[in-house]
Amino acid sequence: MIRYLVTDRRRFGLSCAELTARVARAARRGVTHVQIREPDLTGARLVQLARDVVQAVSGTGACVLVNDRADVAVAARTGGVHLPADSVSASRIRAFVPTEYLVGRSVHSLDEIDRAVAEGGCNYLLFGTVFPSTGKPDGHPLAGIDGLREACARSPLPVIAIGGMTEARAAEVTAAGAAGLAGVGMFMYSGGGNG
Q1: Is it the case that residue 192 has pLDDT exceeding 60?
Q2: 188 band by pLDDT with thresholds 50, 70 and 90
Q3: Would you call 106 helix, strand, or coil by DSSP?
């Protein structure tokens, strides 16, 4: 099962060094993918953080991706890039990243799944928000487990569920057809939480 950590150091009041240490700990505990999503950092600081994280998770098998910045991903020699739903097409990104790079995209509806698949270039889709999440405001649209099941049935690509994920929901998410689960909070502390 894919266990996909999305970083957000500001949410937890962490420095880059503290974030790197937590990510390394999460990778040693079984996180398989780390998406560095720190939009407030300059390009240079983001490259440095990505390099530090790559070094920190070395030997764990975890793949490091950078959110929406293929240039930073290439400069930091990470394992891939993750594209928001409104970003450029994955096929355009494929034109200048290493062949072995993972490229993923966030999707929130069946239409977005169809578009991502038609454009080509993606290895996986990150689908949500599935359950209520502390990272989203009250009233944020939720897909629920039925929406996740429908998304997984629709997509020929592996689907990773995000939004309100907990260890207790892992079996339900897998039963719905998801290849894994993603979150911010659930991987930051050993006690879980919902991301």
Answers
A1: no
A2: confident
A3: strand
Rounded-to-integer distance, Cα 139 and Cα 162, Å: 16
Please tell me the distance from the alpha carbon of residue 158 to that of residue 122, in angstroms, as a whole number.
Answer: 10
Phi, psi of 66 (to 5 degrees): -110, 135
pTM of the model: 0.94
Q: All domains of the chain, ordered by start, with CATH?
A: 2-187 (3.20.20.70)
Average pLDDT over residues 3-7: 98
Does residue 139 surpass a pLDDT of 80? no
Note if the bond before 129 is cis, omega within 30 degrees. yes
Contacts of 105 (CB under 8 A, 6+ apart): 82, 83, 84, 85, 87, 90, 116, 122, 125, 126
pLDDT in tens, 9-20: 999 999 999 999
Q: What is the mean pLDDT of the chain?
A: 94
- Whether the Cβ atoms of residue 154 and residue 173 lie closer than 8 Å to each other: no
Closest alpha carbon to 128 in 87, 162, 178: 162
Contact 2, 33 (CB under 8 A): yes
Helices 144-154 & 110-119 angle (0-180, nearest 10): 20
